[in-house]
Amino acid sequence: MKPPASGRGGPLVPEQADDKRARQLLDNLLAQAHRERASDVHVLPQAKEVLVYFRVDGVLVEKRPLHQAYGQPILNRLKVLGGLDIAERRLPQDGIFTAHSQGEEVRFRISTLPTDFGEKIVLRLLVSNRLVVELDKLGAPTPMAAQIRNLLRRPTGMILVSGPTGSGKTSTLYALVRELLGAKLNIVTLEDPIEYRFRGVAQSQTNPVAGYEFSTGLRAILRQDPDVIMLGEIRDLETARIAFKAALTGHLVLSSLHTRNATEVLVRLIDMGLERYVVASALRAVLGQRLVRTICTACRTQGPISDATREKLRLLPKRELRLLAGGSNSMASGKGCARCNNTGYMGRTGVFELLEIDEPLQELIRTEGTGQTQFAEEYHKRGLPDIRQTGFAKALEGVTTFDEVLAVT
User: Would the CA dihedral through 154, 145, 240, 198 be positive or negative?
Assistant: First the structure.
């Protein structure tokens, strides 16, 4: 059977929806997802068809739907591959399996969710070769990258990476670990899941089913004589307390937190229940980030800034427009071509903000009653560029567009 078409059309009608044909269709679908650089595949059953979406460069793209008859056989096949219970249809399940496509090993993290018309499936593609794990290639400005390297030279303390889901936090954590390789340090990681493997680094993966959570694993890591601990994510107060204690007692701890920006991390940690003095004493820096799509080089063109874009920019606070002062009246964009699937974008890069916790900020954190407003004011008082401003700088360089920066910030 041929792979499903890349465009929207009617559902593929089976000659016979047996297991063999379902396996072939699934293989074709997964190969297509890998070929088109999808980070996720969504399979959503409906009353008369099965909808399929790929997430490419952060955007959901609808593909040709499947005939309803293929829904259950494909689900069953994925459950077998992921080690899930085929008979269980009432509860969500998670699993992982490995396949090979175009000479690359691809791991697929599978998640099921019961819906009105059956179980929805989301597959996350984990392709090690596509992860950017070098600090200079993430997209941070050169001075900021140098500042990050200086922070990594400190033997103790916590460095947090912040941003929403899908903002590239894992790649940044891996890049930080890579910077520390060769420094004769015992580096231990705790992840969910392991997406990239380093030689000489002890990498451990959580297993909630077996009771191996972040907090459990972190306690065990502290008995492994670590110099550096990379913790994939801080999810609860118990994990936060252990991680910050480690940062206070002679370890460099790298981790991530789901927040919108760097200053919000301070509020989140305090709201979680951490004592202010602990946050002020242990936290060294927060790196906030987003991913923006980059303009396709094959169809890149230069033209005037549209009226719609100008109107959006006029509504922004003046401090966010400082980088635009004296800028060109034209901007780069992608016309759309076959290479970028007519989107005008191909690939993504990071836009960042870095908040270093110095003595004045430590005092502000320790002061009862201070919150997001005071922390944000302190950040902007220093004249530091925020995520949107670093994104605008990339738009002025022709790497991305103003519209793309505004869409993710």
Answer: negative
Q: Is residue 56 within 8 Å of residue 36, measured between CB atoms?
A: yes
* Numbers of helices and strands, H then E, in the chain: 13, 16
Tokens of 76: 């069953």
Pairing of strands 157-162, 252-257: parallel
- What Å distances lie between residue 363 and 266, 281, 344, CA to CA? 13, 10, 47
Q: Is 266 helix (H, G, I), strand (E, B) or coil?
A: helix
Q: Is residue 115 within a helix (H) or strand (E), and if so which, with residue range? A: strand 104-115
Q: Which of 27, 69, 28 is nearest to 50 (CA)?
A: 69
Q: What phi, psi does 310 have (nearest 5°)?
A: -60, -40
**Phi and psi of 379, rounded to 5°?**
-65, -50
Instruction: Tell me the CB-side half-sphere exposure of residue 335, using CA atoms within 13 A.
Output: 8
The tokens describing 314, both together, are 């006029």
CB atoms within 10 A of CB 96: 17
**7 φ, ψ to 5°?**
-100, 175
pLDDT digits (tens, 9 = 90+) for 377-403: 999 888 888 999 999 999 989 999 999
| Token representation of residue 241 | 């307390």
pTM confidence score? 0.89
Please report which helix (H) or strand (E) contains residue 294, including its range. Answer: strand 283-295
Alpha-carbon span 108 to 123, nearest angstrom: 6
- Mean per-residue pLDDT, 199-204: 97
Residue 48 dihedral angles phi and psi, to the nearest 5°: -125, 0
